[in-house]
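Help needed: design a sequence for this.
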């Protein structure tokens, strides 16, 4: 029985030890499993945090890219506005130059009239003195001496009459010259029938839908970056529906970009490889258009022996406008006008035609050349073998250098006629109204003015003064003061006539 008890105790001890070992092993397994689960959860949390960090980084990069695009668009708009302001400044400078030339001519005419007035006054004083001496001498002369004196007086009178007659002939000759000049200009203008120019200078590409904008941009903007690099233009994509704007200071580049983008949109395959292919094809097509345009202009004017580089530059003018007037059409028109005017004046029409066609060629030359388009164009055609008369006419058509021949004056006149003819250049309604209002405000700023009206499309301002507050002499001085203030404060394309009206009316009614 004691052995049975010992056996039972041993069995109990063995069971206890086994249970303890089993429990310990089980606890260790659970601990290791819990540790593995914890490590798995930590790894999962770490991966989740890395993914969230990458997403946050990508979101920040997209926001930065959007802000960069907004900034670039705003910068591009600012550059476009600056370019428009520069064009307006150049136009005003040309107008100021023309007005300075007219003012110099008017000043010379006034000085000439003053010299003539001084001469006439001196002659009158001399005649009065002679008359007094003659009357004094007659009292002490006999009949023979009086006859001789009368004979001498008649001779002097005839000499004075001849002087007046010569002056009248000269004045009549000057008037005849003015009439002949008007007749020549009218004949040239009537023989040129040009259409009004209403071209829009913005380069816009229409899209079939707004989803196409995303395809143009591409993943992370790679398509639009590739397109801008290949064409040298800037693609502006905003909230405007189904359209994008192509911007570049080079009109030929804009035309290449427009042609390539329209073909890409029509094809539907937009990725870097096809972009380079379509841009290359569009560049070849536009180069051919440029060559054809230059050849057509030369053929239209029947000009021979022009350098191929000059013809190519003429073709580039097809894509350039100046105040909405196509520069190539303007150059061809100036060539025709110069030829007609030269024929009327007895000059060689071929030389005038050649100079007229080439006068604005500097506008197609790249911007790395310094100087105005007239001087740059003159240097370009000079190095391509053009005659010195043509070179000077090109350089002097804005009077930056002195004209050396009548052909330069003919080109200046033809350029002015082509630019100011009705419908040649457009002006916005807002700027037109502001210009009229500024004219009226300048006139109304003077005391004694009751009302002022800008008429004849802003080429004349008519001022009504109060007759009770102004005399005739004050009204005459007021016209000069208004003229001086307009010249100093306003910018205008041509001359403006100032008419001051002072009228006194007395009305009574009989009943």
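Sure. Designed sequence:
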């Amino acid at each position: 029985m004691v052995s049975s008890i010992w056996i039972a105790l041993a069995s109990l001890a063995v069971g206890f030890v086994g249970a303890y070992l089993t429990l310990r092993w089980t606890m260790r397994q659970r601990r290791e499993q819990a540790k593995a689960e914890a490590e798995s959860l930590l790894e999962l949390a770490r991966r989740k945090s890395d993914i969230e960090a990458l997403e946050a980084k990508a979101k920040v990069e997209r926001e930065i890219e959007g802000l960069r695009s907004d900034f670039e668009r705003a910068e591009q708009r600012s550059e476009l506005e600056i370019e428009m302001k520069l064009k307006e400044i150049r136009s005003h400078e040309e107008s100021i130059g023309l007005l300075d030339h007219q003012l110099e001519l008017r000043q010379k005419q006034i000085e000439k009239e003053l010299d003539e007035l001084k001469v006439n006054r001196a002659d009158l004083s001399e005649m009065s003195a002679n008359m007094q001496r003659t009357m004094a001498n007659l009292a002490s002369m006999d009949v023979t001496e009086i006859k001789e004196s009368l004979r001498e007086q008649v001779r002097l009178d005839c000499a004075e009459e001849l002087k007046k007659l010569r002056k009248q002939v000269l004045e009549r000759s000057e008037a005849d010259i003015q009439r002949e000049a008007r007749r020549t200009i009218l004949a040239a203008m009537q023989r040129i029938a040009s259409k009004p120019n209403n071209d829009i200078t913005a380069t816009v590409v229409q899209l079939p839908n707004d989803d196409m904008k995303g395809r143009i941009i591409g993943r992370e903007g790679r398509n639009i970056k590739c397109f801008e690099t290949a064409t040298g233009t800037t693609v502006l994509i905003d909230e405007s529906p189904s359209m994008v704007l192509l911007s570049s200071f080079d009109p030929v580049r804009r035309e290449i970009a427009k042609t390539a983008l329209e073909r890409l949109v029509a094809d539907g395959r937009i990725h870097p490889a096809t972009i380079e292919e379509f841009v290359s094809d569009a560049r070849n097509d536009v180069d051919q258009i440029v060559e054809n345009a230059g050849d057509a202009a030369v053929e239209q004017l029947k000009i021979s022996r022009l350098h191929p580089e000059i013809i190519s530059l003429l073709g580039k003018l097809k894509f350039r406008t100046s105040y909405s007037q196509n520069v190539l059409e303007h150059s061809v028109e100036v060539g025709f006008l110069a030829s007609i005017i030269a024929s009327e004046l007895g000059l060689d029409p071929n030389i005038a035609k050649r100079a007229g066609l080439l006068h604005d060629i500097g506008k197609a030359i790249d911007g790395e050349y310094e100087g105005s388009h007239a001087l740059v164009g003159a240097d370009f055609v000079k190095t391509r073998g053009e005659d010195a008369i043509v070179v000077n006419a090109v350089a002097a058509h804005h009077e930056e250098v002195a004209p050396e021949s009548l052909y330069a004056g003919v080109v200046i006149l033809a350029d002015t006629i082509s630019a100011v003819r009705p419908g040649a250049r457009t002006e916005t309604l807002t700027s037109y109204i502001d210009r009229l209002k500024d004219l009226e405000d300048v006139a109304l700023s003077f005391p004694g003015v009751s009302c002022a009206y800008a008429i004849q499309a802003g080429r004349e301002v008519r001022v009504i003064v109060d007759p009770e507050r102004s005399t005739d002499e004050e009204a005459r001085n007021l016209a000069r003061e208004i003229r001086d203030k307009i010249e100093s404060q306003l910018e205008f394309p041509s001359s403006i006539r100032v008419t001051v009206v002072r009228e006194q009316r007395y009305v009574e009614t009989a009943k």
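Residues 193-201 have pLDDT under 50 and may be disordered.
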